[in-house]
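Posting this for the archive.
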Amino acid sequence: MRGCGDEVRELLHDGCPVACLGDTPFGYVNVFTSHVNVGFFQGAALPDPGRLLQGTGKFMRHVKLKPGTATDAAALQRLIEAAYSDIKARVENG
């Protein structure tokens, strides 16, 4: 997420790293005992042809990464890039 652009900054919110475009968050990483969630604040609006996203909330979705379980890294990278592009368009267009 840091590599999406020079204007991306990382903040800690409730002890979790959050990737922001300026002050507007677009992604986060949350570590648990048995897995890691890579989440997206506007994840429900993201294209997900790899069907990685989980969650049923109105906006947020996450990808659950578990040790020993293969993850489609390219699909996850596309989600990260889509989340960044989405938030950038939202910020620029009000």
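The mean pLDDT is 95. The beta strands are 8-13, 16-21, 24-31, 36-40, 61-65.
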